[in-house]
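ingest -> validate -> predict -> emit
validate: passed (alphabet ok, no gaps, 124 aa)
predict: started
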Amino acid sequence: MQQIIGEVIQYELKDPRIGFATVTGVEVSADLQHARVRVSIMGDPAQQAETLEGLERAKGFIRKRVAEEMSHMRFIPELRFVHDTSLEYSLHIQELLRQVEEERRANPPRLDDERPDAEERPGE
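emit:
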């Protein structure tokens, strides 16, 4: 179902509001009545909101295409699109780690005995 929805979004939807969106997961309820579709959306918050709006508008079409592709299923769940921010969070953490690494290269940490004032300490 994840692959089908992803392909429909990428290749079949013509709504200009829908930007670069990737289906990162689909969770279907036990009774097969509802599916939570996690979508990672690139762009600023306004573009992300527009993309979610476009996906909500296309929900019926997407569900119909899922039904056509999964004709063996007795029920096709109602789709609910949810913005998945885990990729954005991951990219943010990577950027922070990269910055820390750059700072360490520019100012490598010193051991206590490497400090310039280590020789001046009394009693050593």
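Helices lie at 2-12, 45-57, 59-69, 86-106.
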